[in-house]
Amino acid sequence: METVVIVIHLMVVLALVLVVLLQRSEGGALGMGGGGGGGFMSSRGTANVLTRATAILAAAFFATSVALSLIAKMNESPSSILDSGPSATQTLPSAPEGSSGNGILDALKKPEEPAGAQVPAAQ
């Protein structure tokens, strides 16, 4: 279901970009889009069609965005940030043979204490 909505969303996005780029510029800041004679965008009716298409595609974009966020929220399982960390029973994988062991995980491990450096128990 989520994949279908994502595909529809992407098609709506591409169509919306295309329709917006096809519209005639009102300001003419770069001197483009105005033009004279009989081109593709010369009639008032074409501008109305593109304006309606933009509004429809914008509504479809909004609807698919809301649908995607609702689908993501329904698939989300409640979890705690404390549950996502490694527990004491989990072991980290050892470094591959031939590696120097100077990775980030190796720097975070506690250095092993030598056998003779144990602290005597307080009495």
UniProtKB/TrEMBL annotation:
Residues 79-123 are annotated as: Disordered. The chain crosses the membrane at residues 51-72. It is a multi-pass membrane protein. Residues 79-99 have a biased composition (Polar residues). The keyword Membrane applies. It comes from the Bacteria. It holds the Pfam family SecG. Keywords: Cell membrane, Membrane, Protein transport, Translocation, Transmembrane, Transmembrane helix, Transport. It is found in: Cell membrane. InterPro entries: SecG. Belongs to the SecG family. Involved in protein export. Participates in an early event of protein translocation. This is Protein-export membrane protein SecG.
